[in-house]
Amino acid sequence: MDSAIRPFKLRFFICDAVARQYLKRIQNPNSTSGCEKCLVQGVRYRNRMIFLDFDAPLRSDRDFRLRRDEDHHIGEAETPLEFLGINMVSQFKLDPMHLVDIGVFKRWLKFLLGKLKGIPALLSNAEQAEVSRRIKVLSTNMPKEISRHPRPFEYFAKYKATEFRRMVRYDGLIIFKNLHHDVYFNFLLLFCGIYILSDLSLIERHGDLADQFLRQFVAHSAQLFGPHFVVYNVHNWIHLYNESVDAGSLHNFSAYKYENYYGVMKRYLLSTHKPLADNERNGRLIQNSRSKSVLDSEVSPPGVHNDWEEEGAQYTTLRTSRFILSRRLADSCLSWGYCHTS
Fold first, then answer.
1. What is the structure's pLDDT at 283?
2. Handedness of CA 110, 115, 116, 119 (dihedral sign)
3. Residue 325, phi then psi, degrees to nearest 5
4. How far is CA 33 from CA 63, 172, 292, in A?
5. Residues 164, 105 contacting (CB under 8 angstroms)
6. One GO MF term, please (predicted)?
7. What pairing do the DSSP bridges indicate for beta strands 317-320 and 92-94?
8. What is the model's pTM?
9. What is the pLDDT of residue 331?
10. Is the pLDDT of residue 305 over 90?
11. Among 136, 98, 73, which residue's Cα sits nearest to residue 15?
């Protein structure tokens, strides 16, 4: 690498709870004063730390620097990031990938399916089989734009974060429909809140509703599953709206885009020694890789692909940078434009 100085500005730190704890030198998320956003005091219940106060005073960057809540910090010395002027509360965002998808929603499914030791399943075997059947039907009708197609609950232990995300934002409405009223109502609170916070225009118009939905989801979950459901991750859903007001839609401060690019970066590392220099040296290759992965348009070889006697070339597949159209039923539809009511 050359010796040039490249100025940059840090907007947010996007990482999971354990990494945030390490960088901020604060207590474990499962401690009494573990919440990073408010002064709620956790209580031990059924061998879990739960946080049931939804109206505790919020933490501020100034209070963090002054160590107003001594129980929240590990030691009194400033962290290196504080020395650089980093705001230790507002610039550390609650990552939706770890908090929403593989955090709360995965836990929600575990409670439904009885995947946690000592906690009985909320759904009967027949109900679980019916949900798995719907998932299999959906899988055959899922377009190629969805990278991971739905898998039944037999593969639950192998679910990836993107599979939980797909359920939360898309097909969960169909998968969990016709379950017990309280279960589906609970999911709708979850779905509506996350759906609004995933779109900047919806945040501007209905952000306060999203806040109400998510707070009601946490409270209703405590009634549906029991107080032991409301652990650190679940409690933090009451802070998601404030995070979106500051940073925009959930995608803006999600770890997905960095996790997705991690594999590309690893391919161009020659060794674990001086990884930044390797990435700088191979930056052009990475850029070329990125540009080649996005096609302006691509069509299959022309030919006659049906019984119609139409003039002109016929094609089986159209690929663009945004979508794929083909003769396959799941890829044969295109919604043109965006319609919404005021």
1. 61
2. positive
3. -120, 135
4. 14, 34, 48
5. yes
6. transferase activity
7. unpaired
8. 0.84
9. 81
10. no
11. 98
Token readout for 261 is 């690019």
Rounded Cα gap, residues 94 and 20, in angstroms: 9
Cα–Cα dist 284/6, whole Å: 17
* CA-CA-CA-CA dihedral for 60, 28, 13, 1, to nearest 10: 140
Question: How far apart are the C-alpha atoms of 56 and 215, rounded to whole Å?
Answer: 13
The CA–CA distances, whole Å, from 157 to 20, 117, 132, 150, 247 equal 26, 14, 14, 14, 32
Binned at pLDDT 50, 70 and 90, residue 154 comes out as very high
Place of tokens 């209070």: 63
Residue 34 has pLDDT above 90, yes or no: yes
Cα 63 from Cα 214, distance rounded (Å)? 26
Scanning the structure block, which residue is given the tokens 């409270």?
219
% of residues, the chain, pLDDT over 70: 87
SS (H, E, C) the chain: CCCCCCCCCCCCEEECHHHHHHHHCECCCCCCCCCCCECCCCEEECCEEECCCCCCCECCHHHHHHCCCHHHECCCCCCHHHHCCCCCCCCEEECHHHHHHHHHHHHHHHHHHCCCCCCCCCCCHHHHHHHHHHHHHHHCCCCCCCCCCCCCHHHHHHCCHHHHHHHHHHHHHHHCCCCCHHHHHHHHHHHHHHHHHCCHHHHHHHHHHHHHHHHHHHHHHHHHHCHHHCCHHHHHHHHHHHHHHHHCCHHHHCCHHHHHHHHHHHHCCCCCCCHHHHHHHCHHHHHHHHHHCCCCEEECCCECCCCCCCCCCECCEEEECCCEEECCHHHCCCCCCCCCCC
Which region, left, alpha or beta, applies to residue 121 given φ > 0 means left and ψ of -120 to 50 means alpha?
beta
Question: By the 8 A CB rule, do 41 and 29 touch?
Answer: no
Considering Cα of 51, then 57, then 62, then 63, what sign does the dihedral take? negative
